[in-house]
Amino acid sequence: MLGIFKKGLAHPPQELNSPHPMQAAAAAATREPKFPREILEDFLATHQSGSGSSNAFSVSFEDGALLAYARPEKSYSVHQRLFCGMDDIYCIFRGSLNNLCSLIKQYGLNKGANEAMLVVEAYRTLRDRGPYPADQVLKDLDGDYSFVLYDGKARTVFAASGAEEGVRLFWGIAADGSLVISDNLEAVKGSCAKSFAPFPAGCMFHSEHGLMSFEHPRNKVKAMPRIDSEGVMCGANFKVDVQSKVHAMPRVGSEADWAVWGQNAL
C-alpha cells in the first residue's frame, strides 16, 4: 500500500522531518528525497508482472492526495491486501481481523463485507455519529492489521497500525514536503531519505488532529530522537510516554468531538 498526501493536506508531527537535511544529504549523497510522481512511478514499476503489465493501480485526487494499491500475489494470505472505495471514502487495508463476523453484525454490513469495507463504515460512523471514543473503536478490531484511509469529502487522512506489530506501517516526508505512508520500509526509506520512521504500533493518526495511542489513550505520544547507523539524526521514533497523561478521553464525530482529540494528540 502507498499513500501520498501533499503538504498542507496532512499535518504529520514536525519531528518526522530530519532535523539536519544538509548533514543527511552529505551522509547519503546518492539517496535524496523524491517527489510524489517519482515515488508513484517506482511503486508501480516494483509491482510489474513478468509480462510487463502492472499488478498495481493508483487513485489521484485533485487536492493532492494519492493512494496506490498492489494486488496480492496469492489469492489468499493471512496478511491479505484489500482496497475499498465507498461514498468518496477510500481505504487500503493489510492484515486480517479475527472478529470480522461479529463486527459486520455490529455495524449492520452485508455478510460479504471485508476488512476494508468495515474500516470505512467504522470511520464513517465515527465521523458522522461518533457513538464511541475513537480509541475504543480501534481496540475492538481484534487482529493484526494496518490501514490508510482518505476521506475525499472532508479531505482528511486517517491511518492506524495494530498493536500486534505483524503488519507494520512506515511514514516519511517527500522532497516537496508531502507525507508518505506505506507498509513497505524500502519504499519509504528510498523515497524520503532520512526523514522517515516506523509508524508506531497501537497508534492512530488523523491529518488534522495528530497522532495518539489507541492502546493507551490516557498517555501522550512522545517523539524520540533517532540516529541511524551512519550517525545521522533522522526522523524521530514515536513512543507512548508513560509519565504524561491527557486530561480527557478523546471522542470523535462532530467537529467539537474532533477538537477534543486534537487537544490530546501529539
Could you explain how this protein is built, in words?
The chain has seven helices and 14 strands. The protein has a single domain, classed as 4-Layer Sandwich (Glutamine Phosphoribosylpyrophosphate, subunit 1, domain 1), CATH 3.60.20.10. β4 and β5 form a beta hairpin. The strands form three sheets. Strands 2-3-1-9-8-10 form a six-stranded antiparallel sheet, with helices on one face. A six-stranded antiparallel sheet has the order 4-5-6-7-11-12, covered by helices on one side. The protein starts with a strand and ends with a helix. The protein has 266 residues and is α+β, with helices and mostly antiparallel strands. α3 packs parallel to α4.
